[in-house]
Specification:
Elements (H helix, E strand, L loop, with lengths): L10 H22 L15 H4 L3 H7 L4 H21 L3 H22 L17 H26 L4 H20 L2 H21 L1 H25 L17
Length: about 240
């Protein structure tokens, strides 16, 4: 009695089948792998440098150019100390600075002939019209946006936005009672030079805590809405005179 014929599978076919199954499983795992849907602070989708506008301003805020960033921070600190501790007034500070600058340039221009030095060449300073036009247009757009936002909040159509605005203004009023205007400006300037750099280095941790704080605020607002806001009498909107 003869042995049954055994079907022999070639090694190459088995290997190809194994490779195909492995690649298919790998592709399936890659397809099933969830994408990174982590939300960033303020709904940001771009990197921090691009979100700040890029270019030199973003480099200064993120300390990519440490000399300029440190120089601006030191100058702001010196000005704040002069006005707050020494008691300088703005007009006095400007006049004294101009007197010192004019005296140095005047004496250097006169004594340069005696010390065999070339006289100082004063650069011609012309402010570019395009730059100031862009600044004026930017300020105009910001003011228009602020006025539009004010009337939108005051219209009474969005209670949530109204409460957020009142809370923000109340917090600003409390902070304003603690410091004078110059100190607040200095604190904001220091925050501009430190917070973006700190956030870029600890982005994941800050985003995690921000998400937790956002969830807690939503929970508190839903609790307030359920206990207080929904029980308030609803005021109907005024209809048009034609409909009346």
């Amino acid at each position: 009695m003869s042995d049954p014929v055994k079907e022999i599978v070639p090694e190459s076919s088995a290997k190809d089948q194994h490779d195909y199954s492995s690649s298919s499983s790998t592709d399936g795992d890659d397809f099933r792998q969830p994408t990174n849907d982590k939300s960033h602070l303020f709904g940001r989708q771009k990197p921090v440098h691009a979100a700040l506008g890029g270019g030199k301003p973003a480099d200064i805020l993120l300390w990519r150019n440490k000399q300029i960033s440190a120089g601006m921070l030191a100058a702001a600190t010196v000005i704040w100390l002069l006005f707050e501790w020494i008691g300088y007034h703005l007009l006095t500070f400007i006049c004294h600075s101009l007197i010192l600058t004019l005296a140095i340039l005047f004496f250097w221009s006169n004594i340069s002939h005696f010390v065999n030095k070339n006289p100082m060449e004063f650069p011609e300073i012309i402010l570019p019209e395009k730059l100031w036009t862009q600044v004026a247009l930017l300020l105009r757009d910001r003011f228009n946006w602020a006025f539009a936002l004010f009337w939108e909040v005051a219209s009474g159509k969005d209670l949530k936005k109204f409460l957020y605005t009142i809370l923000a203004l109340w917090i600003v009023s409390i902070v304003g009672s603690w410091f004078d205007f110059l100190t607040i400006v200095y604190i904001l300037f220091v925050m501009m030079l430190t917070v973006p750099c700190f956030y870029e280095k600890h982005e994941d941790q800050v985003d995690t805590y921000a998400q937790k704080a956002k969830k807690e605020l939503k929970r508190q607002y839903s609790h307030l809405d359920e206990k207080v806001l929904q029980k308030l009498p609803k005021v109907p909107f005024v209809k048009d005179s034609k409909q009346q």
